[in-house]
Structures are given as structure tokens and as C-alpha cells.
Amino acid sequence: MAELGSSFYRQFMYPILDKRRGTDSLARYSELKKSQWLSSDEIKRLQQKKLKALVKHAFHNVPFYNRTFKKLGIRPEDIQTKSDLKKLPIIDKETVRNHFEELKAKDFKSWKPTERTTGGTTGKPLRYYSNKSEHSVFWADLWRAWSWAGYELGDRRATIGGSKPSGSGFRSFIKSRVMERNLSLSSFEVKPEAMQVHVKKISRFKPRILRGYPSSLYLFAKYLNDAKVKNLGVGSVLSISEQLYDHQRSAITQAFGCEVYDNYGCPDAGVLACECMEHEYHLNSENAIVEIVKDNDVVSTGEEGEMVSTNLVRYAMPFIRYRTGDMGKASDAKSKCKRGLEMLDSVLGRTADYIILPNGNLLAAVNIAAVFNAISSKIHIIQYQVVQEKKGELKVLVVEDTGFSESDSSLIKDTLLEHMGPDMAIDVVIVDDIPLTESGKRRSVVSKLEVGIF
Ligand SMILES: [Zn+2]
Questions:
Q1: How many C-beta neighbours within 10 Å does residue 215 have?
Q2: Which residues lie below 8 Å from residue 39, measured CB to CB, with a gap of 6+?
Q3: pLDDT one-digit tens code per residue, 232-278
Q4: Which residues does residue 344 pair with via DSSP β-bridges, in sequence order?
Q5: Distance between Cα 277 and ligand 1 center (Å)
Q6: CA of 216 to the centre of ligand 1 (A)
Q7: How far is the CA of 279 from the centre of ligand 1 (A)?
Q8: CATH number of 150-258: 3.40.50.980, 3.30.70.2860, 1.40.20.10, 3.40.630.30?
Q9: How far apart are the CA of 260 and the centre of ligand 1, in A?
């Protein structure tokens, strides 16, 4: 049977989806499609209006904020702009855990809250509540980011994600494939036979966008490049959930013959930073304020720091100045695509993806990837993962490729030592597979140490 066109989905299926969810994502989406072209000053004004309303709500209805404002001797009127936010303390996952009930608004129920949990890839999962309007905005924000990669609502899309091969029931198939036109592939299946099945499915489906973890997409791309498989008919590739490294981007571009767009998202913080066609990272500025912070102070533009977010649409359980745990750099460059949305210069690895060196310095996952990248033509490995359980010690898990020998292990060890100093005890361990996180992510660096950088 011929597949129904995108416009059918846009006009009929998505309104049904909205109705089922009780959301108004379509209306929000058309607003966001317009507001992205407002000037940066106009967007700033929009942001301020929403900030003032949220702060007022938090003061009057949220016991945690009412108490905090009183303790600090400030009134809601004292918070008018993004730069006023520094008068308030930064909160983190621990704050939310410790003040869970107190963070709920008194009119909590009226916001139609839904309980959510974070993925927990970098520690204990966090439980929190989002509200209906936030859910609407979440989808609208996402669709807009996909539109920057050429996707139109109702187009076919595919996802290489965390779903386990056995986890896909009939109901989720109907919801995903039939309602949302999404072909869901598992990132747990990385053997060549599974890759061949992926190839068949994708070339038949011809998705406008293919979304996936860069580590999974990279393995897939490596397979395609080695097997010289071309023209899968993918319009664009969207990299999600993990840091996208340059070598991954170029291998994926080569394999799929299309552009790769990096999409950063932190649902608990309500933040998206996604690449437009010009590969600029734009924030969802109408719905979130992002501050770049180091040692509790906002840093100047162009300086690296942790992203701290204020979700402007979360009313059931407001998070004002919430630590995302991810690093970024703000940009004040003139946008090439002429969108007025704020931009980030870069989005960097999660703060947990760092190795602590014997001298106390930190080495980020991105630096470690660069080390492996530099020696990639000389070593025969399929995957690696650097694990730190103790200070001064490091375990490097590697999955051998044909031609792997003892000298590969030595080269890895010696090269890492050059970057980490001679006091680091490095153990290269050959494994059959690199374990995935529960959500199916493959992380290149796993630190079990508390990294207290800020
Ligand atoms: Zn742009």
C-alpha cells in the first residue's frame, strides 16, 4: 500500500495526536515558526515577559521560592531580566530531591502535571513534574529544530535509539510508525547482520531525517563505509543525547551523503540547542533562559561554563536557575540564518564525562576522543570506553578489530600517558562489547568519581 503523504499526516494525524495527548503542540509550533524570525531584542522582550510571570507565580504559589525570596529579602519585581536572575540561588538535582514537595505549586493539580524521570546516565535518575503546556511546547520546540534540518511536520523519520529489540510491542509500533511516521531501530543491535537489516529498512523507508546517538550512528556509518553501501535515501542526520565529535560527524556525513545536525536537549531543564542549516546552535529562547555559569558566577560571552536553565513554561514545579550538568559557551556572533534566537558557540560534554588526573586537573571526553582519533589509523579497535573508578587509576575497555595485537595496547597506554602524566595507572582491558547504558547510550568516558568542578 502506498504511504500517505506528509500533508495528510500534518492535517489529520497530528491533530489526533494532539487531542490524544491533551496538548496544543500544533498551535505552539506555528507560533514558534514565526517567532524565530523576530529580532533578538523582540525575543528578549518576549523572554522577559514570560520570566516576570513565572517569578510572580513562583513567589505566590511555590513554597520553596516564597521562602527563598523572603530569606533573601527580595520581591518578584526585583527579577525583571535575565541578568537579575543572579539574585536567586542556583538549584540542582539534589535541591529538587531535598525540597520535592516544597517545589510543587499550590495550584499544582490545575497544571495537569505528569511525573517524569531523567535518564540517569550520569548518576541517580531525578523525579520531577512537568505540566501540560510544557509538554505542548516540548514537541513544538523539537519539531522546529527538526525543520532546521529540512523536516516538515508529517515527513517520515527514523530513530536509532535505546529501544531494546524485544521492547517493541504492537501498541508502540502503532503509535510510533503509524501515528508519528517514525521507523524505530535499536541501538542495541550493532552486529553486521543487524546492520544489514537496518540498511534494508532505512532504504525502503527513506526517512527525511534519521536521529540517533552519535556513537551508534558512527558505528553504523563505519559499517556502511566499509561495506561501501551508499544512497540510503536519508535527507539529514540528527545527532542527539551525546557529545558529537568531529570524527563522528565526518564519518556519518560520508556514509549517508548528507548533512549532520547536532541537537542538544535537556528535558528536565527544558532546554534545546540545535544546529540550523548554517550549523549555528540556536536556543529555544522563547521558552527557556540559559545562563553560562562558573563558580556560581555568570561568565562572559565566549567563556566556557555550565549551562544553568530557567524553564519558562514549567508552572507545576518551577525550576529557576537549574543546573543542566552540561557545558556550553555563549555566542554573540551575528546569526547567519537571521534568526533572532540566542546562540551557543558550542555545546560540550556532560560534566560527568571527565577524567580526574593525578594532579587534580580534568580531561574531558572530547580530549580523550581526540587522543584516540590521533592514533586511530595505527590501532585496530572497534570501540573503546575509558572508565575511572578511583583517582589515579584508569581502565580502558577496548573491543578488538582484526589485526589487534599487544602493540596496540601499548600505543593506547603510552599515548594516554603523554596526555595524563606518568602517575596515572592505566590498564587496557579487552572486552567483547562495551556495555550500553540503560537508555542504550554508548559513552566513551564513564567516571564513577564525583567531579566537583563548580
Ligand atoms: Zn542559524
A1: 26
A2: 340
A3: 999 999 998 778 888 889 999 999 999 999 999 999 999 999 999 99
A4: 281, 330
A5: 7
A6: 26
A7: 7
A8: 3.40.50.980
A9: 15
